[in-house]
Specification:
Structural class of chain A: alpha+beta
CATH architecture of one domain in chain A: 3-Layer(bba) Sandwich
Radius of gyration of chain B: 14 Å
Largest sheet of chain B: none
Radius of gyration of chain A: 24 Å
Largest interface: A-B, 13 and 10 residues
Bound molecules: flavin-adenine dinucleotide
Helix content of chain A: 25-40%
Number of helices of chain B: 3
Largest sheet of chain A: 8 strands, mixed
Number of strands of chain A: 27
Distance between the termini of chain A: 58 Å
Shape of chain B: globular
CATH class of one domain in chain A: Alpha Beta
CATH superfamily of one domain in chain A: FAD/NAD(P)-binding domain
Oligomer: heterodimer
Number of strands of chain B: 0
Shape of chain A: globular
Order of helices and strands of chain B: HHH
Strand content of chain B: under 5%
Distance between the termini of chain B: 24 Å
Chain lengths: ~525, ~60
Amino acid sequence: MTAFKYPNLPFARCPELEGASPTHPVAIVGAGPVGLAAAIDCSLHGIPVVLLDHKDTVSDGSRAICWAKRTLEICDRLGVGQRLVDKGVTWNRGNVYLGDRQIYQFDLLPEPDHKRPAFINLQQFYFEHYLAQHVQSLPGIDLRWQHKVIHAQQGPESVTLTVDTQDGQYTLETEWLIAADGVRSTIRDALGQDFQGRVFQDRFLIVDIAIQRDDPAIRRFWFDPPFNAGQSALMHKQADNVWRTDFQIGWDADPELEGKPETIIPRIKKMLGDVEFEIVWSSVYTFTCRRMEKFRHGRVFFVGDAAHVVSPFGARGGNGGVQDTDNLIWKLALVRTGQAPRSLLESYNSERRHGADENILNSTRSTDFITPKTPVSRAFRDAVLDLARDHEFARRFVNAGRLSTPAAYENSPLNTPDTDNFAGTMNPGTPCTDAPITIDGRKTWLLDQIGTDFTLLYFGEDISPATRATFDALSVLQPSVRPLVLAPDGIAAARYDARPATAYLIRPDQHVTARWRHLRLEAVSAALDHCLTRT
Amino acid sequence: MASKLRTDLQIADPDSFYEDLIALHKDLTDEQSALVNAKLILLLANHIGDRQILDEALAAAKKAA
Ligand SMILES: Cc1cc2nc3c(=O)[nH]c(=O)nc-3n(C[C@H](O)[C@H](O)[C@H](O)COP(=O)(O)OP(=O)(O)OC[C@H]3O[C@@H](n4cnc5c(N)ncnc54)[C@H](O)[C@@H]3O)c2cc1C
């Protein structure tokens, strides 16, 4: 078992400390999972970026462990997906128990032919470490560890940050600011924005333990287990033979006492029997669901936990945050180069607020089920569990976390509504579903072939000269639309309800924005204008 | 949308059903009664299934409260 070695993230001086005062195109505050993803995406889009974080190593302890399929797909586009998957523990299935009896089982990826699994489990520090290493290999990212932002002020043409370092303070000018500085966001406070929502009156003890076990990597969740009577518990495998255990301990529990090894060790032994293990990390949590009213304030964008937090039962925090930057960076890139008007940026706010609301809704429902707030809510919860022993329908009410799924922006103003008939689920606004495809005789995956720029999926075999001419015209549009020809009868065609000549216009974040049964240059060009709010 | 929740009498012998309903709670604590009621509601709601009927029933129940 090789334990994680926390890297030492070195301080370095910067031009501002030498008296220079450049205006940066984009600055990102916070190099957690979300800020790091944002910086990598900026580099892919050719935007020079400064990334500041006050810490000197990656996230300690283990916070996030479950990274969803969509996050892995985004990380594939960013160039780190494979490393995460290689190190992480792949899983698709979950078991829910009442007492010691299994009452429900789910499979989050019941069909084959996807590159990525429903989830991997990987400690957050690995996620950050791999992304941070990738950042260092990319051009155009000025990464500044141990630089603490203490104030932000927005002017008409730029945002001014005040930064504190061991070598003194400096101010930094940036045209655009991405606040990825987490739940206690300094930028949010500096702009005087509030953060509304709910706190749940319950406590959870999380203990990551190193232990040799042969159990499969299934998410296991118990209501009222013999080892934690009247409460819930969770157990899940992570990398390096570390397992997460998570015990509901109730609002009245004494966090200090519960966090002591003398209390934790007997607890774990009650769960797993008299086994050898090592406590890697433990802490006692309370959970909140909150979000900002707006995620964009002029030149400042809030992403990740700075913009919204959820309880962890659906693994929606980090996964939701990575979708924020996936949505934002291409828009910022096109606005910066003048290919789209600033009105495009407002769609970041509307699309990602919708995503955050979905995440908050789902994790609030789960938390209300796991932690009923009122006697009547408890009565219904217990009634569901009681009925679930004998009745199939009640098992579907049991809510031990509805796990992160990508947001579909089906009501987004950027979509071009369908004029042709389509069956299936790939409606405008939806993130593209993966499928195995063949290009020039080479097997690959659809999602590996699209993204970062606009793509036109065209389903067809013999490309006529007229279609070829349309392709040529698409590739010289501003921004250019790259055609990708797919077989009209394969798995991809089935998943996209495609027939010969069906065409899909795909955004740089791999979401569908328009589709047709026949390809017409004017229609694609109009949909592109519409998607970029140029009309 | 036309109302789907039937509010004319459906149960053949209402007095006897009412008696059984009350009898169900005999010797139960308030907490146990609340649990039994909740189970009953869930069983019936699932049997009905139709979301419009359920929504109308939710609204009608709240109105009387
Ligand atoms: C117990 C637990 C379990 C979880 N499980 C999951 C899970 O399984 N899956 C999942 O997706 N999510 C999970 N989450 C949520 C996940 O950890 C967060 O959503 C995620 O860390 C958010 O990333 P972020 O980059 O937005 O913010 P953070 O990770 O909080 O990063 C913010 C960064 O900003 C830096 N910073 C802050 N202020 C300043 C400043 N003034 N100047 C400079 N730098 C600053 C910090 O040093 C930090 O590096 C879990 C959370 C908890 C607590």
